[in-house]
Amino acid sequence: MVSVVLLCAGKSQRMGSSKLLLPFRGKTVIETILDTLLSSDVNKIVTVLRKGDEDISRLIPHNKKIIKTFNPEPEGDMFSSIVCGVKSLGGEPGGVMIFLGEHPLVDYETVNRLVETFDSSDKKIIIPVYNGAKGHPVILHKSLREEILGGTFRNGLKGLIEAHENDILKITVDCKGTVIDLDTPEDYKKLLEES
Predict the structure, then answer these.
(1) Domain range for residue 162?
(2) What is the DSSP annotation of 56-97?
(3) What is the three-class DSSP state of 191?
(4) Tell me: the pLDDT tens digits for 140-157?
């Protein structure tokens, strides 16, 4: 069983405006991602927002699978949002999929494939690989919870993954969306061309 921590608390400084509110496929980026996750086999979805992000908060549907939470550190980094999301899940069994709010092209089939791989593997970390490049989302085993909550890694999620390099399963996927980031206006233009 896998639940999701969806990171929505970024400042979108390079984009100049909230990337989650950008139009995409007739909706917004955040709505597209949530539709994908709700169509997948994940258990729960924790959306981690910044306090005051009411425009994003309003777009998150009321659904028994969705838990809305706010990062108490408004200037915190991505890892502080991961910690916030993992805390909100409590002692949920299984794994935690870390889903970045900048990957709207990830499809539910890829999400399901990662979940199935996690469920049948004894590895602690599952990472998708597209065309030789590591991507997102990644899945972390519940046994890493205390390390995540301790937050002692210099390089956040990357540091956590590096600390467990012998316990990683990389799975080749056909979804280019796992490696397409949405950080700048140029990225957004490319994203629209890909969709």
Answers:
(1) 2-194
(2) HHHHSPP-TTEEEEEES-TT--HHHHHHHHHHHHTT-SSEEE
(3) helix
(4) 999 998 888 886 666 788
Backbone phi and psi for residue 30, each to the nearest 5 degrees, phi listed first: -65, -40
Q: Which two tokens stand for residue 172?
A: 């080749």
Least confident segment among 49-53, 64-68, 104-108: 49-53
| Token pair listed for 36 | 């994908």
The token pair that represents 72 in the structure block? 């108490």
Q: What CATH number has the domain bearing residue 84? A: 3.90.550.10
184: its two tokens: 């700048």
Report the C-alpha gap between 135 and 107 in whole angstroms.
Answer: 13
Number of domains composing the chain: 1
What is the spatial distance between Cα 81 and Cα 163, in angstroms, rounded to a whole number? 20
At 114, give phi and psi (nearest 5°). Answer: -65, -40
